[in-house]
Amino acid sequence: MALVCQLLGIHATVVMPRDASPAKRAACAGYKAEVVLCEPTNPSREEVSKALQEKHGYTLIPPFDHPDVIAGQGTAAMELIEQVGVLDTLIVPCGGGGLLSGSATAAKHLNPKIRVVGIEPEIADDATRSFRTKSLQTVKDPQTIADGTRTASLGKLTFPLVLQYVDDFQTVPEEAIKEAVRWLFYRMKLVVEPSGALGVAALLRGVVRPQGRVGVVLSGGNVDAEVMAKILLD
Amino acid sequence: MALVCQLLGIHATVVMPRDASPAKRAACAGYKAEVVLCEPTNPSREEVSKALQEKHGYTLIPPFDHPDVIAGQGTAAMELIEQVGVLDTLIVPCGGGGLLSGSATAAKHLNPKIRVVGIEPEIADDATRSFRTKSLQTVKDPQTIADGTRTASLGKLTFPLVLQYVDDFQTVPEEAIKEAVRWLFYRMKLVVEPSGALGVAALLRGVVRPQGRVGVVLSGGNVDAEVMAKILLD
Questions:
Q1: Does A83 lie at the interface with B, CB-CB under 8 angstroms?
Q2: What's the whole-model pTM score?
Q3: What are the phi and psi torsion angles at A213 (to 5°)?
Q4: Yes or no, beta carbons of A228 and B233 under 8 Å apart
Q5: Would you call B189 and A186 a contact, using CB atoms and an 8 Å cutoff?
Q6: A202, B40, B130, B183: least buried by Cβ within 10 Å?
Q7: Which domain holds residue B89?
Q8: What is the pLDDT of residue B163?
């Protein structure tokens, strides 16, 4: 978002939890976005964002629970399928569910037979439980290395979309997430943050069995040097 | 090469200097290639390779000074230009000159007006001096972080091709190489080894001024966790 605003010549202010990765903060600052810190909770983020919005008349772009954001994140799956053709399975990481519900909506629209699987860390499995029980479950500040999935729960919009378009959920242990980050680094030469590597973790660990042509959405590369070094040297 | 041999079901033996990066050794072993170590000199590599060749009847694939290898490495530039269209400038790292002379040959064939620039580390500038003096210059075991460019000199085949098809040479200091690796990691989310990041270093440092549409060949991602961590935390 910081990059897009810079390219379009729009002033961007990013509200970010105090414990967000320094790499993410540095990236925003590098793209000339203003960074405002909040407490690492949904209420704090919403309060700080609302105050800025009211004071400056800013347009708010929420992290996931908004139709435009969901649609935008869904272009990941759309572009993937447009580029590689028909897929039988699509594997997508899940935090607040924006990327997953958007990708699932786009994928099912292009091919109703595609199997869409959401992946969460074992210790942040709120969406998996929500999907299985069909009632919204939460998780409280799980200390997973996949910091993009520490969100307390799916959103008002993403939960029903997940129930409608996602076929399955699986979880992966922390060690599998690190293994996936290492594999992407050493074999694919890609810098992927732990949250973005959940799909690869699921395949490497065998919790999703590949059927036919499989697509994996890798999302997010905001990983600190310290975190990456620790994972690589593990 | 190890990966290609594995895909084709061919047994591969890789002769590698003792001081090659552990990541490179691990990658070869991961793709089921046999790794044989030699001293970090051209004569030792040639001697060990020749002995293996004579004993087992192996087909030798030299690192750069062979028409097929040069042609194969030239496909990097060919595919780049086929994918992105006409380029005005092409920037390519230079070690033994296989990638550079192959890329320059391919690029000039596709567009005689393209400007091709070779990049070396300041402390391993043998090819730059060879290019400028038009006589083959050498360098002795330079301790550049760009270990893929520690080659003593251009080869019998690559030197004349470089003279024929390359328009300019520039060098970059060690600090610029590290800066380029960091930039590729944090901004492009790519794992590129120092040797492969020379072109980006030249642009970031301003030693090559971008004219028109610029293509940069990034080559090699065999970087150890320790080396990457050190560069990132620098």
A1: no
A2: 0.91
A3: -85, 125
A4: no
A5: no
A6: B40
A7: 67-233
A8: 98
